[in-house]
Design goal:
The chain has about 425 residues and is an alpha+beta fold. The protein folds into two domains: about 5-30 and about 225-315, Alpha-1-antitrypsin, domain 1 (Roll), CATH 2.30.39; about 45-215 and about 320-380, Antithrombin, Chain I, domain 2. The protein contains ten helices and 13 strands. It has helices spanning about 5-15, 45-70, 80-90, 95-105, 115-130, 150-160, 175-185, 285-290, 290-300, 325-330; strands spanning about 135-145, 165-170, 205-215, 225-230, 240-255, 260-265, 270-280, 305-315, 315-320, 350-365, 370-380, 395-400, 405-410. The strands form three sheets. The chain has a six-stranded mixed β-sheet, with helices on both faces. Strands 4, 5, 6, 7 and 8 form a five-stranded antiparallel β-sheet that branches. Strands 12-13 form a two-stranded antiparallel ribbon. It starts with a helix and ends in an 18-residue tail after the last strand. The relative contact order is 0.18.
Length: about 425
């Protein structure tokens, strides 16, 4: 038996569970015409684009590791690209140590802002039109509080590189929340309805990225073959799920001592889903060690193979999480604290910091294919400190604290007033 067939048997044993009756002898389950395969990019990637893609992937893997480490919920779904783009827009406003920390955390060490922006711009253009059989859309927007001064150069850089729309709104007006969320809903085809619950009137800016994906499997699952089967959770308990079945499938498969993997392409095969099932450790532990080298190993281990049966759960997941903590751990902490330098964003940029990075994501996997969306919002606000501005008439007193003796007391109505002579005395004494 050749290695590809051995891999198929391993995957069938470890990854796929089905009854004998569910296995069809028909050749494949492709429903409808198969799109033409896309075997190369329409143009060569520039050096900067290659760097941004590598950086985005490395950043995304680290973000996922740190998020999973701090989030005990059973399902975590992130879009590394969405987070990278929202923070990439914000990066244009950073300077000094804040710029260095954000750039390094995003994986762009050594690249200039112009190189980073140019690579993002090219990547948006490239990915959006790559596969006619797959709908993939990227949208960006900048929402500024109308009372906050912004450098025109910052707005120009973000709108040009990220094809972002820019809005100046009153953050104290509830209609602004509605406008932001309407933009989010429109740019995720309704899969995500909102990203902000309310806006603090003191908030100065929100930068948002939205990503939408809709792709049909190259070889679709036949809905009539979907069966209810047990799915074993991490704690050993089981739950019945709708398990889709694909038989006699020509796919890329990987098999190692500690996991099995399979790649399912969409449309013309430019996009795909890679599924990895660990069997010597938990999926959470596997994720904890999934750095760029480990991910490269997964991808490099995929080989063309014929699976007698692929059985995959049909599922719909949504996720909502704040990414401040993992980004802080990854080295971006200075951007979240007083002292952050966003002076390229605003003349008051030394008085603001990132208040939140929030991402909402949605994914639906069924027999036809996959719909997915993600929205990442970066909120910028004035640095948090308690202030008392004595800018009106006041009373003061100087006292000895232990005895309580008041030594001086005064009323100040105008600190700049020159001393005046007293009113002439009109005495009734003689």
């Amino acid at each position: 038996m050749n290695s590809s067939r051995i891999a198929s048997r391993v995957v069938r044993t470890a990854l796929l569970v089905a009854t004998t009756a569910a296995v069809s002898t028909a050749c494949g389950d492709s429903l409808g015409p198969t799109p033409d395969a896309i075997t190369r990019l329409p143009r060569a990637l520039s050096v900067s684009e290659q760097q941004v893609i590598a950086a985005s992937n490395t950043f995304g893997l680290a973000l996922m590791r740190h998020t999973v480490a701090g989030d005990t919920r059973p399902n975590v779904v992130l879009s590394p690209l969405s987070a990278s783009m929202a923070l990439g827009m914000t990066l244009n406003g950073a300077d000094g140590a804040t710029f260095d920390a954000m750039r390094n955390t995003l994986g762009f060490a050594g690249m200039s802002q112009d190189e980073i922006n140019g690579a993002y711009s090219g990547l948006i253009e490239l990915l959006s039109d790559l596969d006619p059989a797959v709908r993939f859309e990227i949208a960006n927007s900048l929402w500024a509080n109308q009372d906050f001064p912004i450098h025109p150069a910052f707005v120009a850089a973000v709108t040009a590189a990220f094809q972002a729309t820019a809005e100046s709104r009153d953050f104290a007006d509830p209609a602004t929340v509605g406008a932001i969320n309407s933009w989010v809903k429109a740019n995720t085809d309704g899969l995500i309805e909102s990203i902000v619950d309310s806006l603090d009137p003191d908030m100065v800016m929100v930068l948002i990225n939205a990503i939408f994906f809709d792709g049909a499997w190259t070889s679709r699952f036949d809905p009539e073959k979907t069966v209810s089967q047990p799915f074993t959770r991490a704690d050993g308990s089981t739950v019945n799920v709708d398990m889709m079945q694909l038989t006699d499938a020509e796919l890329s498969v990987g098999a190692r001592n500690d996991y099995v993997s399979v790649e399912l392409p969409y449309g013309g095969k430019a996009f795909s889903m890679v599924v990895v099932v660990p069997h010597t450790m938990s999926a959470r532990d596997f994720m904890a060690g999934l750095d760029q080298a480990a991910w490269d190993e997964v991808i490099d281990g995929l080989r063309p193979s014929t699976l007698d049966l692929l059985s995959l759960p049909r599922f719909t997941l949504s996720y909502d999480g704040f990414l401040n903590a993992p980004l802080d751990t990854m080295g971006m902490g200075v951007a979240f604290r007083p002292g952050a330098d966003f002076t390229k964003m605003s003349p008051l940029g030394d008085q603001v910091c990132i208040d939140f990075v929030r991402q909402k994501s949605f994914i639906e996997v069924n027999e036809r294919g996959t719909r997915a969306a993600a929205v990442t919002a970066v909120g910028v606000r004035p640095t948090s400190f308690n202030a008392m501005v004595v800018d009106r008439p006041f009373v003061f007193a100087i006292r000895e604290r232990l005895s309580g003796t008041v030594l001086f007391m005064g009323l100040v109505g105008d600190p700049t007033a020159e001393p005046e002579e007293p009113e002439p005395l009109s005495s009734s004494c003689g």
